[in-house]
Amino acid sequence: MGGRVTAQRPDGTGAVNPPPGTPLLQVEDLVIDLPDPQGDVVRVVDGVSFDVPAGTTVGLIGESGSGKTMTALAVIGLLPDRAATGGRLLWRGADLLRPETDWRRVRGHQISMIFQDPLAALNPSLTIGRQVGEILRRAGRPRAEVRRAVIDLLDRAGVPDPERRMGDYPYEFSGGLRQRAMIALALAGNPALLLADEPTTALDVTVQARILRLLRSIQQEGLSMLLVSHDLRVIAHVADQVVVMYAGRVAERGPAAEVLRRPAHPYTRALVASVPAVRTRTALADPLPGTPATPAHRPSGCAFHPRCPLARDRCRAEVPPAREVAPGRWSACHFAEEVLTP
Amino acid sequence: MNDTLEVTDLRVTFRGGLVAADGVSLRVAPEETLAVVGESGSGKTTVARCVVGLQRPDSGTLTFDGQPLGPVGRRPPELQRAIQMVFQDPRSSLNPRMPVADLIGEAWRTHPAAAPPGDRTEALHRLLADVGLDADVTGRRAGDLSGGQCQRVSIARALAVGPRLLVCDEAVSALDVSVQAQILRLLVDLRRTHRLALLFITHDLGVVHQIADRVAVMRGGAVVEEGPAGEVLGAPRHEYTQALLDAALDLGVDE
To answer: Best interface-test mutation with A: which of B149, B152, B153, B176 has the largest number of A CBs within 10 A?
Structure first.
């Protein structure tokens, strides 16, 4: 086949130079439709908007069915083929959802992803070093240079004795080391954005603390991060901004410290209350009734209304739009002001 | 002595030489909650499996109410009934094709002595109400229920045979945060209303503080520290307990 006709930026996104101050990633009214096993189309993500400014970490928090993982998969072009999308995913100003996007030039180079289960994400039959160096080798870098880079990447990710351990296979690594190897692999292409989907959920607490410390040191090198988690505590420790999702929609978003200290949505408030304190004995929280709503059975109006202590007629009838309820604070609750000032 | 679980010098070595329990001794008094915390490989699940009789120890003794606890199949029926287990993943511990009524009925068929005399429907509805489920779930299959509902069914099935000790192995770990709080609250309530003792296996220190009277911290098959939950977590004496506490995350908003 012939070469490309249209002019293409080396990053493969076709982006023109965006104006300064443009967020790295802008998610605008993202919609994802997926057919369920019966063939009915389910809107798993329904009008999600948020930004990831350069150099910041955004935490995407939600329970099962919230659409957080689907949102992340859309950002890295890994949605199932049968998914239909709407809205825009602007990467440095260019829409990743356009069919022209050359994902091979985005994935690993612009945006990388680390997964919950490194054992499933790593190839069991290739050495760690070979996998970490893959993207560099494919770029045609000389062997000795790739080797040096791999050792450096593993070292940065905190793999001890990288020169020797790069010859190991994934099964020879502990869970924590595997996650470090995957982080090294994700950083190999020098991406600007790291997507992390529940990166510490499968790890022991002491290992989790070390991986979170590593993620924070990577942040300080200027990398942006989109951290997906169900664990408010992990988000609180790493994220600058937080996006709270419920049943495929954004419930609220804003600066992490403010959102967690003074939620502007009853769902966030209940989530915060259900996090047990470790060092002091706290009373058991009054739990939310019911189970998280799923996109397939999304309640009318505000999807949270059947579980909400503040729900009234309007909540059952009208879908609350996200609105700015305080500077930088967005809430999709009709009565956000009541939540903010109890 | 009545209804007390005593575990003395329990040792379990797996094939390949891994020592899963290295002289573990524990005691759970009637209506008391003991949390066993530790990371993977600490031996906490092995202890739980020995208590319910799914794992045979190499040496050591386990007794409940003074009676020796052998493998589950060799326990007298009343001892089998007395100690029930709730697993981490309710979706894999319940047959997804079985209706809720049959799942509970199965427990009564296994232990006829615990089955309610006469009309079982009313007893079934009462049991479901105890775990916060509506009577209309009886005909639904486990596979059609949410994770939280499944865990409630598992708990109802355990309660159906009138246990005195409930062994919960990471019983809330696989649940959504908002559902986790419900199940914890349920266990705390059931413990009081059904006069249950709980052996609560968990990796989550935050949960320990909410539910346990006492806590045993395990590492590498051994109990490194044990005592009242408030003391152990408030002023740990063992450096490993301190390390666990240092690693555990708080929300950090009220500090």
So the answer is: B176
